[in-house]
Amino acid sequence: MDWGTLQAVLGGVNKHSTSIGKIWLTVLFIFRIMILVVAAERVWGDEQQDFVCNTLQPGCRNVCYDHFFPISHIRLWALQLIFVSTPALLVAMHVAYTRHEKKRRFRNGEKIDIEELKNEKLHIRGPLWWTYTSSIFFRIIFEAVFMYVFYYMYDGYQMPRLVKCEAWPCPNTVDCFVSRPTEKTTFTIFMLAVSGICMMLNLAELCYLVIKICMKESRKTT
Amino acid sequence: MNWAGLYTVLSGVNRHSTAIGRIWLSVIFIFRIMVLVVAAESVWGDEKSAFTCNTQQPGCNSVCYDHFFPISHIRLWALQLILVTTPALLVAMHVAYQQHQEKKLLVMTGHADAKHMEEVKKHKMRIAGSLWWTYVCSVVFRLLFEAVFMYIFYMLYPGYQMMRLVKCEAYPCPNTVDCFISRPTEKTIFTVFMLVTSSVCIVLNMAELIYLVVRACARRSRHNSNPSSGKGSFYGHKHSSEYKQNEINQLLTEQDGSLKDMLRRNSGLQEKGDRCSAC
């Protein structure tokens, strides 16, 4: 199970999304997952080996690294991307359930074309609308939570060049140097910007769905 | 999602590109992405581990490396290639939207059989009307991104040449320290190669832009000299409600005529008696 499998799973959901949802999925795969895989993982690849402290005290380097990097950026981004893409599976499950119900009605004697049932695009209305809106809401929550976790854990989004470490067994205060801090800051800001764009797209999709349902209701009542 | 995934996504767009657009896409994938993956990444692979400074001061190596290489060439090229290839997705989205409209039109005019639906998916869209504008915008964005990245490269690494030796004075290095870069000549060769292919891509994009503009002007002058063939005309079928007729007219004005051509070719239902001045 890797990013390719996730892409296959989510590609199926794409058919039942709105246009904004399809754009969101493209941005997610090309500007976040692809950048993570082809670029960011190389930048953070040597983060522990090249974390150098100005001491020969055994164990000091490990302890300082663990103190300043409780969980690596790469792992946090991987978790964020998994959490943010999985609410779409709620929609997939609902669609599968609706189709299952239709097949059951067919077996009970109603005339429904089985082939057309597999390929038809379900309209986002009724209970599917609620499921879809909940999935977008969860996406927004997860994005915001992870952006906050990043900010809280790393005191802002910049990677310092030098950190001063006092954890045992380091003697007094020891200078430790982080590898590739500028490149890491650049990628952190890039991933933050794309995360912000994804949140905007999700908010736009939420507004679009709410407005569409309000207009439909007002047309029904007039 | 990696370069192979990007290739799958973009080869779909290929069908609706011009000939120059297809050449551009091949140059991108073969001379840039493939070279990046099979060659350049191994040249830059040991860029940090083999960056050696003439000091035993801990941390001096890291700090000097970070000072002289704020962002690695490989990452810059990866970002450049991703940003340069993504405007093509604007075209893909527009084509998908137009196909959706054509299917709606087929359903409304009663031609929604499997054969016509298949042909909507398979036929090549003519680059005219609003699709022309989307296509031209995507080419302009490509040019812009290429130029911006070439400028960034020049700003970060003046002269495009990789030095053999750099002198570093950043804390905690004591005084001035000599630092040596690994494989400078090989890196210079690949930098120049990627720069040349980038320029070739810029030239191809400019040629494509000129070709599209010239073709649009030629089409417009032909249209002006032959005013009887026009878009957005009345499709002479009898419909039960005026609302349906107005919607069809609306959809027709948005089409570039490719759907009308397709229907005419396949069903042969345009007779001389029908009022259809687009045909």
TrEMBL record, chain A:
Q: How does it sit in the membrane?
A: Multi-pass membrane protein
Q: Its Gene Ontology biological processes? A: cell-cell signaling; gap junction-mediated intercellular transport; sensory perception of sound
Segments spanning the bilayer are 23-40, 77-97, 128-154, 187-211
UniProt key word Membrane: yes
Classification via Pfam families = Connexin (PF00029)
Which Gene3D superfamilies does this one have?
Gap junction channel protein cysteine-rich domain
Instruction: Give the location in the cell.
Output: Cell junction, Gap junction; Cell membrane
Against SMART domains, the record matches this protein to: CNX, Connexin_CCC
Determine the domain of life of the protein's source. Eukaryota
> Where this protein primarily resides, as one coarse class?
other
Keywords, comma-separated and alphabetical:
Cell junction, Cell membrane, Gap junction, Hearing, Membrane, Transmembrane, Transmembrane helix
Asked if the Swiss-Prot or TrEMBL record annotates the protein with the keyword Membrane, the reply is yes
Q: Which GO terms describe its molecular function?
A: gap junction channel activity
For this record, the Gene Ontology CC terms, alphabetical, are: connexin complex
Q: Which residues form the Connexin cysteine-rich domain?
A: 142-209
Query: Which family does the similarity line name?
Result: Belongs to the connexin family.
On subunit structure and binding partners, the annotation says:
A connexon is composed of a hexamer of connexins.
Functional description taken from the UniProt entry: One gap junction consists of a cluster of closely packed pairs of transmembrane channels, the connexons, through which materials of low MW diffuse from one cell to a neighboring cell.
Name of the protein described by the UniProt record: Gap junction protein
- What is the protein's species of origin? Pardalotus punctatus
From TrEMBL, chain B:
What's the protein's topology in the membrane? Multi-pass membrane protein
Query: What residue stretches are annotated with the Connexin cysteine-rich domain?
Result: 145-212
Molecular function as annotated in GO: gap junction channel activity
Task: Note the Pfam families from the entry.
Answer: Connexin (PF00029)
Q: Where are the transmembrane segments?
A: 21-40, 77-97, 131-157, 189-214
Work out whether the entry's keyword set contains Cell cycle. Answer: no
Q: Record's Gene Ontology CC terms?
A: connexin complex
Domain of life where this protein originates: Eukaryota
- Which SMART domains does the entry mention? CNX, Connexin_CCC
Where, per UniProt, does this protein localize?
A: Cell junction, Gap junction; Cell membrane
User: What keywords were assigned to this record?
Assistant: Cell junction, Cell membrane, Gap junction, Membrane, Transmembrane, Transmembrane helix
GO biological processes: cell-cell signaling
Q: Which residues form the Connexin N-terminal domain?
A: 42-75
Q: What does this protein do?
A: One gap junction consists of a cluster of closely packed pairs of transmembrane channels, the connexons, through which materials of low MW diffuse from one cell to a neighboring cell.
UniProt record similarity statement: Belongs to the connexin family. Beta-type (group I) subfamily.
Q: How does it assemble?
A: A connexon is composed of a hexamer of connexins.
Q: What is this protein called?
A: Gap junction protein
Gene that encodes the chain: Gjb1
